[in-house]
Backbone:
C-alpha cells in the first residue's frame, strides 16, 4: 500500500523542509512504482513520454498530467455523454483506475441512461463494496471532470479540509457553518465541505447549513450552463426549454431562496452569539451582499455604514473564483461584502479564499497574510512554458503538484494545472527569508498572483471555428 | 541597449511637414516576440511611431490628396516592377550588411525565428509582382462564372462563384449558350481614391501586401495612384516600414500617396474621420476587430459614395494529397527522392511556416487511400510528415517555443489514441504534433481538431476519394472560414492539369475554398490571384456578390518539383 512509510499528516506541519522534501520524493517514487503497472492510462502517458517503471528525479515533470484533460478525456473516447455508452464509460474508467473493476458486474448496468447522474448513481451502487464516491468539477465549461474517490481518499480530503482550510482559518466545532451550496451535489468542494462539517460534529449538532435548496447534479449544471447540449431532439429540448427554464429558476427561485435563508441563518447566529463560517462562491456571496444592501435600514442588517454585526471569530470563506464573465471583480465583491458584514469590534469581516480543484485532494486556504498555503504533504512546484520545473524559492510559473497520498490506490495524483502563480518556498526550494509572515512553513502562492492561463493567444486571421 | 526602429512610414513630403522636433512618439518594447514594459526591454527592440492629433491627420490627408494629383504616372507599372525587383535583389544579395540585423530585429518583434524569417524571405520571388500587375488589368468573359478560365495570360486559372441560388440557376442556364460565354463581363469601374487598410500582425508584412495591391491597382488609373492609409499592427510594426524605406531609395515617387502608421482603434473621432475619407476599406484582422471596424463604419455619416469593404477575417486552410503521391516506387526526377517524401516535406512546410499563426497554414492533411499493395498507407505518410517537420524544426525553429501547448495536445491525443480513434506520430519532445485520425469523423470532432491545429499541429485524415473532402468535411464548415488548399494531386506523368484535379478544384470552389496552390506554396499566395475571394480587379470595380476561386498554377508537378528543389537547396546549405 502507498504511503505506509510516511509519518502522520500532522507531523508534516512541523517537519524541517529538507526532511519533508526527502520523504515526499521517496513517496512520489513509490506511488509511481505502485501505479505504473496497474494504471493503464497513467502507464500509457508515462511510456509516451519516455518514462519507465522507475521514476528518476530528473523525470519528475514528465509524469505530470494536465488537470484540464485527464479526467475529462472520456469526451474524446466515449463522447460528451457517457450515459449513452455506459460500457464504453466503464472501459474508460477501468483504464483510469489502478484497481480492477470486476467486469462481470458490467452487465448489471443498463444499455443507456437518461442522465449522467443516474449512471453515476448506478456505478456507486453496483460497486458499493468499493465505497466509491464520484465527484465532479463545477462543470461550467459544459464538460465536467469525473473523479472517482474511495473511502480512504475521501477521508484524506476531509482531513485536509479540517487540518488545513478550517485549521488555517481558525474555524472549529464552536462555529456555525453556513454553506451557500447545495447539500446534494457531486461538486468536489461542496462534498468535502459537507463531510468536513460532519467530521467536526457540526452536522450532528445542527450547526451546518446548506442554503441552496435544490440538488445540483451534473446534468442540471450542464443544462443551466448552456454550453453543451445532447444531440437530436433531446438537445433541442434542453436548448429551447431546459436551459432558459434553469436560468430562470436559478435567478428567480434558487438564488433568492438561498440568499433569504442565508440572511435568516446569519440573523439567528447573531442572536445566539455564535461565530459563523459563511462559505460560498464569489457570485453567490455578492448576491447576498446586494440583498443585504437592498434591505437597508432596520436591525443594522446591511445599510452602508450600518453593517450587519456578527459575533467575534466569524469569517467569510470564498472558493472557486469567477468561472464566467461577471461585471464585478473579486476585489469589488469583497469590498461590497465587507460593507454589509462586520464584526462586533467594528472591524470588517475577514474574507479568506481557498484554492482547490476537483482533481486535487487538497485545498490551499488563504492565511491571515493573504497568501495561499499548500498542505505540507503535497510536493508543489511551478513549471516554465516548456513544462520544466522552475528552480528557485520565488518563481512564477504554472502550478503543478505531486500528492503521493491524494489518489490513494486509485490513481497517482500528479498534475499540472492551468493556473499561473507566483510560488514561494516550493517543496524543493525553501528559503527561511521568504517564509510567509503568518509563520507557517509551507509552500505558498503569493496573494493576487493566481491567473488562469489561456492555452493559446489567438490573433489575426488564424481563426478558431 | 535596444535598437530603435520606426513603426511608421511617411513619404518625405509629409515627414517634413508633419514630423517636427517637438512631435511626441509612442514607444513599444519587444522581447521574444512579446511587448514588454520598458524596464524589461533591455537588449530587445523598440518601435516608435508619432502620436498625431486630428489637425496633423487632416494635414496628412490634404497632403496625400495633393500628391495624388501631382505624382507622375508615366510607365507606372514598369517603374513599380523595377523598384520591387531591385529591392528583392538587394535583400537577397549576400553582401547586404543589414540583412542579419533586420532578421534579428524582426525575430525579436514577431517571435518567429531568424531561420524562419530568412527562409520565408528567401523565397519571396514566389510572389510575382509582374503577375499582380497583369491581373489588375485583366478582362473577363461570362465564362468565368461557370468554369475555370485563364487570367490575362497568367499561369493558372480563376473561376467566379455567384451568390444567390436564383442568380446561379439563371447564370447556369445562360452559360449553355456559347455566345453568352464569350460575352465580356462588364464590371462597373469604381477606382478608389483612398484605400484605408487595417493590417494584422500575426504574420509579417500584411500592411505591405495591402500597399502592393493598391499600387498595382493604380496601373489602370489615369488620375494617379490611390491614396493608401494603412494602420500598422502593434504586434508586427517593423517589416513594412523597412521595405518601404528601401523602395523609397529606389523610386520615391511611387510612394508619394502612401502612409503607414499606428493609431488607436479606441480613438472614435480619428477612426470616424479616416473612415469618412475612404472609398475602400481593407482589413486583415480577427473577426472581433473587423466587427469593431464595421460597427464604427456604420456610425460614420455616409460619404459622397458608398464605402466598399474587403474583409479578411478568421480563416483555415488545408492540404490534399492524392493517392498518386503515395504510389510505391514513384520518385521525383531530379534527386530520385521517393515522391511520398517530397510531398510530405512540402506539406510539412505548409504547416511549419509562421507556426500556423496565419490563415494560410495548413491544418488538416486529407490523404487519399489506395490499395496497400500499390500505395503507401496513411500511417507511412504520417511518419513522413513527422520526419519532414523534424527536419524543418532544425531549419526554421520556433523562436519562442512554449512546448506546453504542444505537450497538452500530445496528451490529449494520446488519451484519444487509447480509444482507437487516432494515432500519434510525433514524440513528446518534438515541438510539433502529427496525429492520424480515423475517418469518417463527425463534424463537431472535425471542427475541434481544426481548432487544435495551431503551433505546428497537423491532423492527417484519410479519405477513400478526394471528393469526400468537400462533400463530407468542408461543406460542414461555414463558408466564410474556408481559405486555401495546398494540393499534390493528379497524374505526375501529365505535364498539365489532370482533369481529376480540375473537378476537385470545382468542388472545392463551390464549398468556399478560394485559393488552390501546390504543396509547399501554401504560405506563398500569389497576389495576382484570389485572396479570400477577391482578385486585384476587385479593388477598382464593382461586381455582383460572390467570390473568386483561383488555381494558382498550370503545371502542378513541375511546380512541386521546383519548390522541392528550392527547399532542398536551402536544407542542403544548412546541413
Residues:
Amino acid at each position: 500500500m502507498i504511503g505506509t512509510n510516511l509519518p502522520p499528516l500532522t507531523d508534516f506541519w512541523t517537519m524541517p523542509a529538507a526532511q519533508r522534501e526527502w520523504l515526499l520524493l521517496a513517496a512520489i517514487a513509490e506511488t509511481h512504482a505502485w501505479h505504473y503497472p496497474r494504471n493503464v492510462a497513467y502507464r500509457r502517458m508515462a511510456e509516451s513520454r519516455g518514462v519507465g517503471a522507475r521514476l528518476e528525479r530528473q523525470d519528475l515533470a514528465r509524469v505530470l498530467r494536465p488537470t484540464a484533460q485527464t479526467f475529462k478525456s472520456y469526451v474524446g473516447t466515449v463522447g460528451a455523454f457517457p450515459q449513452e455508452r455506459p460500457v464504453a464509460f466503464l472501459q474508460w474508467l477501468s483504464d483510469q483506475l489502478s484497481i480492477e473493476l470486476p467486469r462481470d458486474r458490467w452487465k448489471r448496468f443498463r444499455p443507456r441512461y437518461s442522465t449522467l447522474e443516474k449512471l453515476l448513481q448506478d456505478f456507486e451502487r453496483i460497486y458499493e463494496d468499493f465505497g466509491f464516491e464520484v465527484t465532479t468539477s463545477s462543470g461550467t465549461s459544459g464538460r465536467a471532470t469525473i473523479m472517482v474517490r474511495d473511502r480512504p481518499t475521501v477521508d484524506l480530503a476531509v482531513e485536509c479540509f479540517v487540518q488545513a482550510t478550517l485549521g488555517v482559518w481558525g474555524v472549529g466545532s464552536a462555529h456555525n457553518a453556513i454553506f451557500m451550496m447545495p447539500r446534494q451535489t457531486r461538486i468536489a468542494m461542496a462534498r468535502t465541505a459537507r463531510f468536513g462539517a460532519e467530521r467536526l460534529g457540526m452536522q450532528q449538532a445542527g450547526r451546518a447549513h446548506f442554503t441552496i435548496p435544490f440538488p445540483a447534479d451534473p446534468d442540471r449544471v450542464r443544462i443551466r450552463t448552456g454550453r453543451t447540449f445532447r444531440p437530436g431532439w433531446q438537445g433541442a429540448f434542453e436548448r429551447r426549454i431546459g436551459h432558459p427554464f434553469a436560468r430562470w429558476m436559478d435567478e428567480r427561485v434558487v438564488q433568492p431562496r438561498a440568499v433569504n435563508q442565508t440572511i435568516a441563518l446569519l440573523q439567528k447566529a447573531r442572536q445566539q452569539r455564535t461565530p459563523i463560517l459563511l462559505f460560498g462562491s464569489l457570485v453567490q456571496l455578492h448576491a447576498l451582499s446586494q440583498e443585504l444592501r437592498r434591505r437597508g435600514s432596520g436591525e443594522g442588517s446591511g445599510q452602508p455604514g450600518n453593517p450587519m454585526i456578527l459575533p467575534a471569530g466569524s469569517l467569510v470563506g470564498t472558493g472557486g473564483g469567477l468561472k464566467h464573465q461577471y461585471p464585478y471583480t473579486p476585489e469589488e465583491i469583497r469590498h461590497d461584502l465587507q460593507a454589509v458584514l462586520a464584526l462586533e469590534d467594528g472591524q470588517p469581516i475577514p474574507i479568506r479564499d481557498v484554492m482547490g480543484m476537483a482533481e486535487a485532494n487538497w485545498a490551499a486556504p488563504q492565511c491571515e497574510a493573504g497568501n495561499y498555503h499548500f498542505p505540507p504533504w503535497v510536493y508543489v512546484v511551478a513549471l516554465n512554458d516548456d513544462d520544466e520545473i522552475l528552480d528557485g524559492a520565488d518563481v512564477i510559473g504554472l502550478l503543478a503538484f505531486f500528492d503521493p497520498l491524494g489518489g490513494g490506490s486509485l490513481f497517482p495524483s500528479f498534475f499540472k494545472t492551468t493556473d499561473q502563480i507566483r510560488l514561494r518556498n516550493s517543496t524543493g526550494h525553501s528559503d527561511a527569508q521568504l517564509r510567509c509572515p503568518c509563520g507557517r512553513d509551507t509552500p505558498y502562492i503569493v496573494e493576487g498572483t493566481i491567473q488562469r492561463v489561456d492555452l493559446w493567444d489567438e490573433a489575426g486571421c488564424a481563426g478558431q471555428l | 541597449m535596444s535598437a530603435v526602429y520606426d513603426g511608421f512610414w511617411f513619404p518625405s513630403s509629409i515627414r517634413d511637414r508633419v514630423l517636427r522636433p517637438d512631435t511626441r512618439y509612442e514607444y513599444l518594447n519587444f522581447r521574444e516576440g512579446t511587448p514588454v514594459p520598458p524596464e524589461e526591454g533591455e537588449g530587445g527592440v523598440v518601435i516608435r511611431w508619432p502620436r498625431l492629433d486630428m489637425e496633423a491627420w487632416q494635414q496628412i490627408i490634404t497632403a496625400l490628396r495633393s500628391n495624388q494629383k501631382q505624382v507622375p504616372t508615366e510607365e507606372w507599372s514598369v517603374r513599380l516592377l523595377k523598384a520591387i525587383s531591385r529591392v528583392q535583389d538587394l535583400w537577397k544579395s549576400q553582401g547586404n550588411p543589414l540583412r542579419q540585423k533586420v532578421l534579428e530585429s524582426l525575430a525579436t518583434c514577431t517571435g518567429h525565428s531568424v531561420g524562419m524569417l530568412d527562409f520565408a524571405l528567401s523565397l519571396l520571388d514566389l510572389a510575382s509582382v509582374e503577375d499582380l500587375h497583369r491581373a489588375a488589368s485583366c478582362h473577363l468573359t461570362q465564362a468565368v462564372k461557370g468554369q475555370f478560365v485563364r487570367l490575362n495570360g497568367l499561369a493558372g486559372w480563376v473561376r467566379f462563384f455567384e451568390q444567390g441560388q436564383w442568380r446561379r440557376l439563371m447564370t447556369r442556364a445562360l452559360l449553355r449558350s456559347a455566345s453568352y460565354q464569350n460575352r465580356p463581363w462588364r464590371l462597373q469601374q469604381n477606382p478608389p481614391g483612398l484605400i484605408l487598410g487595417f493590417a494584422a500582425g500575426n504574420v509579417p508584412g500584411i500592411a505591405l501586401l495591402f500597399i502592393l495591391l493598391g499600387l498595382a491597382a493604380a496601373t489602370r488609373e489615369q488620375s494617379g495612384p490611390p491614396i493608401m492609409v494603412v494602420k500598422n499592427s502593434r504586434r508586427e510594426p517593423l517589416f513594412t516600414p523597412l521595405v518601404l524605406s528601401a523602395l523609397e531609395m529606389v523610386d520615391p515617387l511611387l510612394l508619394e500617396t502612401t502612409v503607414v502608421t499606428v493609431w488607436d482603434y479606441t480613438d472614435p473621432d480619428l477612426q470616424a474621420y479616416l473612415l469618412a475619407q475612404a472609398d475602400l476599406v481593407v482589413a486583415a484582422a480577427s473577426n472581433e476587430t473587423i466587427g469593431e471596424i464595421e460597427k464604427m463604419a456604420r456610425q460614420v455619416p455616409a460619404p459622397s459614395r458608398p464605402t466598399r469593404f474587403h474583409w479578411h477575417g478568421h480563416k483555415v486552410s488545408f492540404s490534399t494529397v492524392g493517392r498518386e503521391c503515395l504510389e510505391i516506387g514513384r520518385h521525383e526526377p531530379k534527386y530520385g527522392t521517393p515522391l511520398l517524401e517530397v510531398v510530405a516535406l512540402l506539406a510539412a512546410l505548409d504547416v511549419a511556416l509562421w507556426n500556423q499563426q496565419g490563415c494560410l497554414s495548413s491544418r488538416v492533411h486529407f490523404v487519399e487511400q489506395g490499395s496497400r499493395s500499390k500505395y503507401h498507407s496513411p500511417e507511412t505518410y504520417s511518419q513522413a510528415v513527422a520526419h519532414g517537420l523534424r527536419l524543418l524544426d532544425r531549419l526554421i525553429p520556433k523562436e519562442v517555443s512554449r512546448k506546453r501547448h504542444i505537450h497538452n495536445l500530445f496528451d490529449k491525443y494520446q488519451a484519444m489514441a487509447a480509444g482507437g480513434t487516432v494515432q500519434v506520430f510525433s514524440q513528446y519532445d518534438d515541438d510539433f504534433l502529427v496525429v492520424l485520425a480515423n475517418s469518417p469523423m463527425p463534424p463537431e470532432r472535425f471542427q475541434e481538431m481544426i481548432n487544435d491545429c495551431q503551433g505546428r499541429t497537423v491532423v492527417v485524415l484519410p479519405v477513400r476519394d478526394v471528393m469526400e473532402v468537400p462533400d463530407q468535411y468542408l461543406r460542414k464548415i461555414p463558408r466564410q472560414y474556408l481559405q486555401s488548399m495546398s494540393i499534390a494531386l493528379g497524374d505526375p506523368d501529365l505535364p498539365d492539369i489532370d482533369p481529376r484535379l480540375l473537378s476537385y478544384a470545382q468542388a472545392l470552389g463551390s464549398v468556399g475554398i478560394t485559393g488552390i496552390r501546390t504543396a509547399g506554396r501554401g504560405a506563398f499566395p500569389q497576389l495576382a490571384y484570389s485572396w479570400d475571394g477577391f482578385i486585384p480587379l476587385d479593388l477598382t470595380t464593382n461586381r455582383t456578390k460572390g467570390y473568386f476561386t483561383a488555381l494558382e498554377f498550370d503545371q502542378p508537378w513541375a511546380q512541386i518539383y521546383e519548390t522541392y528543389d528550392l527547399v532542398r537547396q536551402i536544407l542542403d546549405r544548412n546541413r
About this structure: DSSP finds 19 helices and 21 strands in chain B. Residues 321 and 367 of chain B are 5 Å apart (CA to CA). Residues 378-395 of chain B form the longest helix (18 residues).
